[in-house]
Amino acid sequence: MTRIPVEADWDNAPGVLEGARELELTPAMCDLPYWLEHVAGSMLRRLSDGSVSAAAPTQAVLRPGPLREALIEEFTFRTLAEEKATRALSFLVHHAPDRDCLEFYATQLLDEARHARAFRDHLLETGVSEEEVRAAVARTAASSGTAVLDPLEEFGLGVLRDRQDFYGGVLVLTVLVEGILAPAAELSERKWKVFDPRAALVERGANMDEIRHLAVGSAVVRQHLTERPEARAGLLDLVREGRRLWEELPMAQVLHRRESLFQEGLAEHGHLLGDYEIWPGRRLVDTGVEERMEAAERWSRETQDARLKYMLLQDAL
Fold first, then answer.
1. What confidence tens digit (pLDDT) does each residue in 136-177 have?
2. Which CATH architecture has domain 15-37+53-316?
3. Residue-range domain boundaries for the chain
4. Facing residues of 279 across strands?
5. Burial bucket for residue 151 (CB in 10 Å: 0-12, 13-18, 19+)
6. In this structure, are residues 20 and 215 in contact, taking their beta carbons and an 8 Å threshold?
7. pLDDT for residue 32 is more than 60
8. Rounded to 10 degrees, what is the CA torsion of 289, 292, 293, 296?
9. Which of 69, 157, 197, 309 could form a disulfide with 55 if both were Cys (CB 3.0 to 4.6 A apart)?
């Protein structure tokens, strides 16, 4: 029997915070045969055949109320983000400098498309109709999508489509997209684990992929700068430019609204959580909006810092 790599093993894969900072993978290690065997053929099969399963959402999520609103807002935002990532990745595939990178980014493109479907499908599973999902996605696209995702997309396309800069594009995805959003997804997985175990399972599957994407993207940039140290200054400028953009975006307001809805749900349904801890020593029911947001921001900063150091771009810190 083929051994399942730890990062693709539902039972043993690290969480985002550990894996995104420490795991080392390369495009050659995560090529098309790897993906077909261990992701499509193992990870996804276990999910589809029910050997990796979770309980149904609780009534706190299935009935109208703040928890349901928080879930819909979050999963429509994630659907849009994953769709935009899928489209942007087509440029990385097109400009891939070798077969290993071409195959890896082709598999990442499929991963992101699958994530978009998974987030959308879970809303259907909670009783949101197809028409309601389309309307909710449209509302999110016109609000937080326009405010946050569209500027990020334009920045990334400026690098990938306009400059045709493969390594710059890898850096943008690794640091400014997944390096920021993955820790927030880790928080989401923990938040929904009791209220909506299947939502947490969707997040868990996406997070396992994102760990691989972060690790490989970091290795691609590190190898490039090892071979061409003269490219370092340009990539440093790109990181700084992207971070300035991120600081101008109203992501904090988007998260605050989402966490405020979740907090209202905690006040109403916190008794369902018992002593469940969102992190060691801290019960979820006792947390507040600012505390959870500060944790996500701290995780994001620490993850970015660790990856920038690994990519030989520590001067951007």
1. 999 999 999 999 999 999 999 999 999 999 999 999 998 887
2. Orthogonal Bundle (1.10)
3. 15-37+53-316
4. 282
5. middle
6. yes
7. yes
8. -170
9. 197
